[in-house]
Amino acid sequence: MGEKLNEEKLNTSPYELDGKPPLKEAIPLGIQHVLAMFVGNVTVPIIVAGAIGLTVEDRAFLIQCAMLIAGVATLLQVYRIGPVGARLPIVMGTSFGFVPIAISVGNTYGLSAVFGAALIGGLFEMVLGSFLKPLRKLFPPVVTGTVLLTIGLYLIPTGMNYVAGGVGKPDFGSFSNLFLAGLVFVTILIFNQYTKGMFKVASILIGMVVGYIVAIPMGKVNFDAVVNAPWFSIPMPLEYGITFVWPAIFAMCLMYVVTAIETVGDISGITVGGAKREATDEELRGGIMADGLGSVLAALFNAFPNTSFSQNVGIVSLTGIMSRFVVLIGAVFLILAGLFPKLGAIIAVMPTSVLGGAAIIMFAMIMTSGIAMVSRDLSQRNLLILACSLGIGLGVGNVPGVLGAFSETTKLILGGSGGMVIAAFLAVILNVVLPKGTADSKPICVSEETKIEA
Q: In which element (H, E) is residue 188 found?
C-alpha cells in the first residue's frame, strides 16, 4: 500500500514528465538548462567561422541563428509533432561532433556546401529514426551505457578547459579562473546536498549566478558585447545559399549515424537518471527523428547540425526534474535570445570558468549514468564489449596520429569527438557478433547482499 501511495504521489508531482511547476520555479529551472548549454551552443559557430575565415559580423549572425534554432529544435523534442519528438525534457543545441567536418567542407567547398550536406544528413537521420524499432535490438543497455560513458569521458577534458578559462585565453589556468570554477563547484554541492525544495533543484543555476556576480568586481566580465548588440533582429533563411556536394554529403551522413547513437544514449540517460526506467521505442524513434528535423531547419536558417545536449542530461540526473514544462521555458528563452541579441549577449559574456565549475559536475553525472546502465549486467561478454569499445575508442581519441594512414575524410569521421565514433560503432558491432552463451550471460562479482535485494 505504501509503495502504491508513493507511486501516485510521484505521478502527481509538478516535477514529473507532464507536471507544471509554478512559474516562479519553472523560470529559474528553465534558465538553468539554458546556462548549462549556452556556451557549447555558441562555441561551434565561433570555431567554424574563425576556421573558414568569416567576418566578425558573420560570426555574430551565426550565433544568433544557433540560439534561435536550438530553441525551436528543443520545442520539437519536448512537444511531439506527429511521430517527431521524444516528448522528454531534452535540450537541443549545435553539435560539437560536426565541427571538424564543417571546417573541412567549408574550407574546400564553402559554407553553402556545409548547409547543403547538413540538410541531406538531417533527412537521412529522420529515415534512420523511422526504422528504429527493428534496430532497437542493436542498442541494449551495454551499448547505450557504453556510449553514455564514452560521452562523459570525452566531455570531462572539455569541462576542465572551461575551468581553466577556455583554451587559447591568456589567463588560461590562472588562480582567478580556478577560484571562480571552485566557487561555483562548491556552491552547487552545498545547495544540492544541504538545502531542500527550490534551492536544491536549482543548485546549478545558483552556483553559476554566484560565480557570475563574483566575477564582475574581479574584472572578468566585459559588457561591451551587451552594449553593442542590437535590441531586435530576425535571422533570414538561406543567407549563405545552399549547394549539394556528394563528398560532403557522404561525410555528413556518416556523422549523423553517430549523432543518432549519441541521442539514443542521451535519451536513455534521461529516462534512467530521471524516471528510473528504460526508454521506449516511441521515445527513441521520435527523439532521433526530431534530431534530424532540427538539423534540417538549422541548415535552412544558417545554423549547424543540432543534437541533444548531454550536459542537460546531467542536470536531469542530478536534480531529478523531469518536467517538460521546465524545458519549454528554456526553449522560449533561447528563441528570445535569438530574436533579441542583447538578451543572449548577457549570457555570452559569462566567464568560461564559471561554466566550468558546473560543467565538471554535469559531465561526470553523464559518465556515472553510463556506469549505472552497464553495471546492470556485468557478464564477461558485456565487460569485454565495454573494454574493447572504450580501449580502442579512447585510445584513438588520445592518439589521433594512429590514423595517419587513412584519408583526411576518414580521419575526420573516425577520430572526431575524441574517439566516441569508434567506441559507439564498436559497441554496436561487438554486441551483434559476440555469442550470448548461458555462462557468459550471468553477472560476475554479484554479492549475496545484491542477490537478496534483487
A: helix 175-194
